[in-house]
Amino acid sequence: MSAYRIQGATGEWEVVIGLEVHAQVTSKAKLFSGAATEFGAEPNTQVSLVDAAMPGMLPVPNQECIRQAVRTGMALEAKINAWSRFDRKNYFYADLPQGYQISQLYHPIVGEGQVEIEVGEGSAKRVGIERIHIEQDAGKLMHDQHPSFSYVDLNRSGVALMEIVSKPDMRSPEEAGAYVRKLRSILRYVGSCDGNMEQGSMRADVNVSVRRPARDGQEVVPFGTRTETKNVNSIRFIMQAIEYEANRQVDLIESGGTVVQETRLFDPDKGETRSLRSKEDAHDYRYFPDPDLLPLELSDAFLEECRASLPELPDAKRQRYERELGLSAYNAGVLTAEVETARWFEELLAATGKSGPDVGKAASNWVISDLFGALNRLGKGIDESPVSPAQGAELLGLVADGTLSGTLAKQVFEIMLETGEDPAKIVEERGLKQTSDTGAIEAAITDVMAANADKVAEYRGGKDKLFGFFVGQTMKAMHGRANPQLVNDLLRKALS
Amino acid sequence: MTALTDLGVAAIRDGVRKGAFSAVEVAQAFSAAVAGAKALNAYVIETPEHALEAAEQADRDRAAGNLKPLSGVPLGIKDLFATKGYQTTAGSNMLGGFEPVYESTVSGNLFAAGAGMLGKLNMDEFAMGSSNETSAYGNVISPWRRSDGGNAPLTPGGSSGGSAAAVAARLAPGVTGTDTGGSIRQPAAFVGITGIKPTYGRCSRYGMVAFASSLDQAGPMARDVRDCAIMLEAMAGFDPKDSTSLQLDVPRWEAELSSDIRGKRIGIPKEYRIEGVPEEIDRVWEQGIAWMKDAGAEIVEVSLPHTRYALPTYYIIAPAEASSNLARYDGVKYGLRKMPESGGLAEMYEATRAAGFGAEVKRRIMIGTYVLSAGFYDAYFNQAQKVRALIARDFERVWEECDLLLTPTAPSAAFALGEKSDDPIAMYLNDVFAVPASLAGLPAMSVPGGLNEQGLPLGLQIIGKALDEQGVLNAGLAFEERAGFTARPEAWW
Q1: Which of A154, A370, B425, B443 could bridge A47 with an S-S bond, Cβ 3.0-4.6 Å?
Q2: Do A54 and B102 touch (CB under 8 A)?
Q3: C-alpha pair distances (Å), A214 with each of A2, A12, A247
Q4: pLDDT per residue over A402-445, tens digit each?
Q5: Which fold has domain B4-263?
Q6: Peptide bond into B131 cis (omega under 30)
């Protein structure tokens, strides 16, 4: 695949992208208080005295949030810092009751790691992780509740976030998209973030700069000045923001201007970014160690427990599917991209009671073509599937033991989708069973041949292609229930 | 018969237990004294109903044979402690009328031990001050007067000035104080009472309005060492709501009290002999050393080489933390809000904070903001953190040579109100002997040593190893027995 380049008036430009992904930690309680974290609750109903920054209130770390950050770091093959510390990031805003955000600037809990992404067919690339730190989310301002006042909702205030900072390793919007998709997939496998971007559980600050591509023999081209586009909340928007911002920077430079290091905002309606504040009026956050909190020290036992609790991750799973189940790289990739899909697929496999390539291939093909097709049509996710993995396994079993032909299986599946009934019951009650009754099939063949004597003659005259026609006619006469292999065998005999 | 208000914590507890008087009588006597001492301005609010209710409960508990450690003892609570349903202002206009819906762990522990509350005690605004002159409620006036015939009103010290004055004037048998850089010890010394700041982390900071989180520590102030031990036992203890509170059982300090300190090595740090300190301070120090010798202690000259950096270090770290801790007072959620005619959020912040904070608080917020700013952080805050570690190491090393340290508490006796209020540096110098132990988080107590020529009390400080409150209390008791300090201010209020 050729490298992504911006074609400027003065030549080609390379785009350099780094992402800071804010992922809300899956936890019933906030990072430093016992308040709940449920999405969509009535304003200010999930606020403790700590979250409201009442005088004399103190933060107490929530072990579960720490554990999830450590597990995430491990899943990203990152260095876990057994000693880390919380710092205060000081600034005034109405959605920040304490007047500071508790974060980790100097000593984050997770150090360098990596994510492997795939861009285009089979071309893998590693994106470095710089660090992951834990911090508090802020509240939310509501400007539409009163003509002259803004209202504050502190439900999100103090919710635990992981800030996952990548290295500036991405070079195209596609790579950035693939990175976020992969990161999201891993977080959801680990269970440390639900990855729900519409609800704001995951959002990204997008750092973009442009530079000339390296010429032959030139090793290092310095980075250009970057801008940071804040709080972009979908993969599509992240890619749009990068494309817009890279082109804007190229236009600016080529028309004699300079890129200013600044914070920008993405406007999804217009598909463009605009300046929020420049470095000159940037905050001085006056970071310093939070004296209310002791440094975080993680014991070996705790780290071991975190590691032991990690599930099989998407890359490992994909390789295993290829190796053990004989799946194509494509099928294995599709089935492992989302944790729910893999879970469903594995429940299906387990319910078949079989293992290995035979059942693996049949099951994966059925899931990807039949089940996904149906779910797509119904507009449902796999976890809302009207057909359970056990029912799917039963259906696959009926095909494997010859009770159902492929065609019949599709019919039965449609009925399953509609009624939710088990396939065996459907087959039984509706008589959809495939028949291997030689006499009945032979009788049907006789009728078909009698009705199409001209074609029989043509076939016997060498027009082999007509065989399919006879198969079709016979199956039709058998109402689709004849064993296709038997139909083939008997037809060949009868026509020869 | 002695007036009930002449009794201390132990005497009241024991008297109620024996039935010598009822808890209600005690509460009423103290509430009356409080009501009659408004001229001292020691209390910002009076809560006789709280004291009375606790006393009634104590009397019922006695009848039921169910007395608690502080049953029948009414206390004054420094206004820095959140008291549920009772105004908690930290001496600031910013929190004028603020009534928390929660109880601080320390006041809650005391009430759970059977104590009642006589009222909330005046203090320097947000505990920032050494003379109680920064309070939004006006300064406390010390019950003490110089014997020179002039009636110049004196400071009770600060920031726990109301607390100190209340004990000295017999407006409470015991009170809570808080100490960030001497705020228990210096006022205790100024009014001739005893006050101990325990090891950092002994008392929970939950519900204590924060000044400088890494230094703030609650402690008792009372008539004598035993009373302090009794109160501290009730106040201290691990609290899961404060991550910095120590996960340790509370020792039985009162039961283990002993004035037998024979063989203890008491260090006299040479760096605490500083230029410009009046001779009377040296004199009381020498006297204290003699008493310790008399008690069988071994006196050793020791060195704490980084002592002279303690004050500047303190005045970087404490304001830095304060500048951040006080950011929450912004007019958005509670407390004072000032809305200018025009303008938005930033203007509301400015107007609110301009009106809500006094000059000293503003000064410290400015200093703290400055030392944390980009470009200054390394030169000031980071450097101060390093020096703080060196100061702590000085103490670690000195414990190889001695068990306790004996030093003056403050560099002078109580000064007149207004005398230093125009000179912040002179004011800050009051803390010179107190801040090293604060920076190192060590237990330190001030005990009265005698009167100066003007008839004003002078205190000495005993500093101990981390967690060795018992050693400090025992040495204090030995000191107290020899000092026989019984002087008290003559009531003029």
Answers
A1: A154
A2: yes
A3: 14, 10, 19
A4: 888 888 899 999 999 999 999 999 988 887 777 878 888 889 99
A5: Amidase signature (AS) enzymes (3.90.1300)
A6: no
Give the global pTM: 0.91
CA angle B482, B484, B485 (to 5 degrees): 130
Distance between CA atoms of A194 and A184, rounded to whole angstroms? 8
H or E element that contains B17: helix B9-18
Domain boundaries defined on chain A: 6-305, 312-430, 438-495
Neighbouring-strand partners of residue A273: A266
The encoded tokens of residue A360 equal 């693996």
- Residues A463-489 have a mean pLDDT of 88
Closest CA to A66 of A305, A291, A289: A305
CB of B155 closer than 8 Å to CB of B42:
no
| Cα gap A48→B313, rounded to integer Å | 35
Q: How far apart are CA A201 and CA A207, in angstroms?
A: 20
Pair of tokens at residue A128: 């470095």
Q: Which residue's entry shows tokens 């283990």?
A: B256
Residues of A in contact with B326 (CB under 8 A): 99
A296: contact with B, CB 8 A cutoff: no
Which of A88, A92, A284 is closest, CB to CB, to B330?
A92
Which of A54, A56, A94 shows the shortest C-beta gap to B332?
A94
d(CA B215, CA B443): 12
> For residue B141, how many C-alpha atoms fall within 13 Å in the half-sphere facing its CB?
15
Residues of B labelled catalytic? 78, 159, 183
Average pLDDT, chain A: 93
Q: Are the Cβ atoms of B242 and A58 closer than 8 angstroms? A: yes
CB-closest option in A55, A284, A286 to B82 = A55
SS3 state at A301: helix
A282 pLDDT more than 70: no
CB atoms within 10 A of CB A397: 18
Token pair for B213 = 């989180």
Q: What are A204's strand-pairing partners?
A: A21, A232
Cα of first residue to Cα of last residue in chain B, in angstroms, is: 22
Whether the per-residue pLDDT at A281 is higher than 70: the answer is no
Tell me which chain B residue has its CA closest to the CA of residue A94: B332
Instruction: Indicate the Cα dihedral angle B235, B241, B246, B249, nearest 10°.
Output: 60
Distance from the first to the final alpha carbon of chain A? 53
Residue B323 near chain A (CB below 8 Å)? yes
Contact A54/B at CB under 8 A: yes
The secondary structure element, H or E, covering residue A23 is strand A11-24
The dihedral over CA atoms of A285, A287, A292, A293, expressed in degrees to the nearest 10, equals 130
* Helix, strand, or coil (residue B434): coil
Residue B56, CB-side half-sphere exposure with 13 Å CA sphere: 5
Provide CATH code, domain A438-495.
1.10.10.410
φ/ψ (deg, to 5) at B447: -125, 145
Min distance A54 CA to chain B CA atoms (Å):
8
pLDDT at B2: 67
pLDDT (0 to 100) of residue B92: 98
SS3 of B484, please?
A: coil
Number of H helices, E strands in chain A: 16, 16
Q: What is the pLDDT of residue B194?
A: 98
Q: Which of B13, B469, B72, B77 is nearest to B249 (CA)?
A: B469
Do the Cβ atoms of A57 and B95 come within 8 Å? Answer: no
Whether B57 and B102 have beta carbons less than 8 Å apart is answered as: no
Q: Does residue A475 contact residue A434 with C-beta atoms inside 8 Å?
A: no
User: A288 to chain B: which residues are within 8 Å by CB?
Assistant: 320-321, 324, 372, 377, 381
Low-confidence ranges of chain B (pLDDT < 70): 1-2
Q: Using alpha carbons only, what angle is made at residue B265 by residues B260 and B266, rounded to the nearest 5 degrees?
A: 95
Helix (H) or strand (E) holding B116: strand B116-121
